[in-house]
C-alpha cells in the first residue's frame, strides 16, 4: 500500500508540477532577454493555464514595446543625421568653391539648423510626456482651443483654410503646457494636411459620458482606415510632403498620442467619408474649479 501510495503520489505530483517547470523555464528565458518565446500551455482551463496565458500576453506586450522603442531610436538617429549631413555638404561645397556666396550659404545653413532644433525639441516633448513628469492642474480644453486657434490663424489664412470652433467649457486635469501642445499639433495638422484650397477645420469641445472630449476634423485627401492606423507612430508621414522643404518631421501625432496616454486619455483617428481626418481626444473629466 505504502509503495503504491508513494509511486502514485510521485506520478500525480510530477504531472501537476510539469506546467510549473515550463513556466519557470519561460521566465528564465525572458530574464535572459529572449522575449519571443511563449509558453503556449495546452490542456484544461485551470490556474496554471491562466498564469501561462497571462505571462504570454505580458511577453507579447513587452516584445511589441521593445521593438517599437528600437524602431524609434533608429528613426530618430536617422532623422537627426540628415540635417547634420546636409550641413556638412554645404560647408564642403563652400570651402571648395573659390567665390562662395556667403549670404545664400548662411540662409541655407539657418534653415537646416532650424529643422534640427525643431526635431530635437519635439523629441524632448515626447520624452517629457512619456515620463509623466508633470503636475496636474485644472485645464479648460475649450480655452486651449481658442488660444491655439489664435496662434495658428495666420497659417490657416495662408493655406486658405477656414476654422470653425464650437463647444462648451471642457474641464480636464493635466499639464496646461502639454495639453496646449496637443491641441496645437492637432490644429496644425488639420490646417497643413488639408485641401490645397477652400479647406475647412471643425473643432468641437464638450463633456460626454464622463469624458472631456476634443474633436478636430478637417477636409482633405481621402484616407483609408488602414493608412490612418499607422499615422500615430513616430516618423510616419504621408508621402506627399516628404520631399518638400516644408515637410514636417512626423512627430506631431506621436506627441499627441503620448500626451493623451500620459493623461490616461483615449486617442481615436478615423478617416472622414468625404476625405480628410477626424481626431478625437478623450480625457477624464474633472470637476470644474
Ligand atoms: N488632420 C490631418 N488630415 C490629414 N492627414 C493628416 C492629418 N494629421 C496628420 N495627417 C497625416 O499623418 C502624418 C503624420 O502626422 P504628424 O503630425 O505626426 O507628422 P507631420 O505633420 O508630417 O510632421 P510634424 O512632426 O511637423 O507634425 C502626416 O504627414 C499626414 O500625412
Ligand atoms: Mg503634424
UniProtKB/TrEMBL annotation:
<dbReference type="InterPro" id="IPR003594">
    <property type="entry name" value="HATPase_dom"/>
</dbReference>
<keyword id="KW-0597">Phosphoprotein</keyword>
<dbReference type="GO" id="GO:0005886">
    <property type="term" value="C:plasma membrane"/>
</dbReference>
<dbReference type="Pfam" id="PF02518">
    <property type="entry name" value="HATPase_c"/>
</dbReference>
<protein>
    <recommendedName>
        <fullName>histidine kinase</fullName>
        <ecNumber>2.7.13.3</ecNumber>
    </recommendedName>
</protein>
<dbReference type="GO" id="GO:0000155">
    <property type="term" value="F:phosphorelay sensor kinase activity"/>
</dbReference>
<keyword id="KW-0808">Transferase</keyword>
<feature type="domain" description="HAMP">
    <location>
        <begin position="14"/>
        <end position="67"/>
    </location>
</feature>
<dbReference type="InterPro" id="IPR036890">
    <property type="entry name" value="HATPase_C_sf"/>
</dbReference>
<dbReference type="Pfam" id="PF00512">
    <property type="entry name" value="HisKA"/>
</dbReference>
<keyword id="KW-1133">Transmembrane helix</keyword>
<keyword id="KW-0418">Kinase</keyword>
<keyword id="KW-0812">Transmembrane</keyword>
<dbReference type="InterPro" id="IPR004358">
    <property type="entry name" value="Sig_transdc_His_kin-like_C"/>
</dbReference>
<dbReference type="InterPro" id="IPR036097">
    <property type="entry name" value="HisK_dim/P_sf"/>
</dbReference>
<dbReference type="InterPro" id="IPR050428">
    <property type="entry name" value="TCS_sensor_his_kinase"/>
</dbReference>
<dbReference type="InterPro" id="IPR003660">
    <property type="entry name" value="HAMP_dom"/>
</dbReference>
<dbReference type="InterPro" id="IPR003661">
    <property type="entry name" value="HisK_dim/P_dom"/>
</dbReference>
<keyword id="KW-0472">Membrane</keyword>
<dbReference type="InterPro" id="IPR005467">
    <property type="entry name" value="His_kinase_dom"/>
</dbReference>
<feature type="domain" description="Histidine kinase">
    <location>
        <begin position="75"/>
        <end position="287"/>
    </location>
</feature>
<dbReference type="Pfam" id="PF00672">
    <property type="entry name" value="HAMP"/>
</dbReference>
<keyword id="KW-0902">Two-component regulatory system</keyword>
Amino acid at each position: 500500500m505504502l509503495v503504491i501510495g508513494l509511486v502514485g503520489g510521485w506520478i500525480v505530483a510530477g504531472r501537476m508540477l510539469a506546467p510549473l517547470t515550463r513556466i519557470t523555464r519561460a521566465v528564465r528565458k525572458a530574464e535572459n532577454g529572449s522575449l519571443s518565446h511563449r509558453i503556449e500551455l495546452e490542456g484544461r482551463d485551470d490556474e496554471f493555464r491562466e498564469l501561462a496565458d497571462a505571462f504570454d500576453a505580458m511577453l507579447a506586450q513587452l516584445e511589441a514595446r521593445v521593438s517599437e522603442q528600437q524602431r524609434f531610436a533608429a528613426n530618430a538617429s536617422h532623422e537627426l543625421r540628415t540635417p547634420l549631413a546636409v550641413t556638412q555638404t554645404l560647408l564642403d561645397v563652400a570651402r571648395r568653391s573659390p567665390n562662395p556666396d556667403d549670404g545664400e550659404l548662411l540662409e541655407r545653413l539657418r534653415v537646416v539648423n532650424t529643422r534640427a532644433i525643431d526635431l530635437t525639441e519635439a523629441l524632448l516633448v515626447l520624452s517629457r510626456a512619456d515620463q509623466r513628469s508633470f503636475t496636474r492642474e485644472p485645464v479648460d480644453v475649450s480655452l486651449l482651443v481658442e488660444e491655439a486657434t489664435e496662434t495658428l490663424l495666420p497659417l490657416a489664412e495662408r493655406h486658405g483654410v477656414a476654422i470653425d470652433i464650437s463647444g462648451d467649457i471642457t474641464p480636464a486635469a493635466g499639464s496646461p503646457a502639454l495639453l496646449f501642445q496637443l491641441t496645437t499639433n492637432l490644429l496644425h495638422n488639420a490646417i497643413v494636411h488639408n485641401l490645397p484650397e477652400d479647406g475647412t477645420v471643425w473643432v468641437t469641445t464638450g463633456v460626454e459620458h464622463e469624458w472631456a472630449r476634443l474633436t478636430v476634423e478637417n477636409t482633405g485627401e481621402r484616407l483609408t482606415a488602414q493608412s490612418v492606423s499607422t499615422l500615430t507612430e513616430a516618423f510616419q508621414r504621408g508621402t506627399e510632403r516628404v520631399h518638400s522643404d516644408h515637410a514636417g518631421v512626423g512627430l506631431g501625432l506621436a506627441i499627441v498620442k503620448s500626451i493623451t496616454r500620459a493623461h490616461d486619455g483615449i486617442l481615436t483617428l478615423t478617416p472622414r467619408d468625404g476625405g480628410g481626418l477626424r481626431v478625437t481626444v478623450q480625457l477624464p473629466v474633472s470637476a470644474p474649479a
